[in-house]
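Sequence in, structure out. Go.
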Amino acid sequence: MVATVLIEEHNGTAGSETQTDKTSGTIRFKNADNAAVDNGDPLVIPTSGQEYSYEKWLRLNVTVAPDTNISNLKAYSDGANGFGTGIKLWYAADATYSTPVVPSEANDPPQHDLVAMTDFFTKTSASPVDLGSGPFTGTGQKGSYLVLSMEVEPTATQGALAAETITFAYDEI
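Output:
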């Protein structure tokens, strides 16, 4: 049987986090740790330095098991930042969930677990983020989390941003 794999956003305190299906949905970067796609808690253009959003934790959840397994979990962008000047998207991969935080604005680029995050738009299908080689069998959460944080700089323009796509990929047998 072909596997059914969801992309889920995790929010809340580690050990009791909530998961929201974002497979065909929208992720809103903001100053709140929740999966709501609303205008509450917007990021503000700073007068100097930068402002970071709360981290967004995304992970694959297999709800219908593959015949044999899935492997080579990856995530990537189209390689072009369509958010505009003064907006960046940073990432890290993490095997273990922890409560989302706003990265310290003393660090540019931001850090996740004391390691500098990387520009997500450098990750394309030719050089994706590795979220676990597997093989993964059965159902449930699989691979590492893709941890994202948006940065807003003083040069950003006010208003809603254009949509960007995050692609998740895997091999299945």
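Check: The chain has one domain: 4-172. The mean pLDDT is 96.
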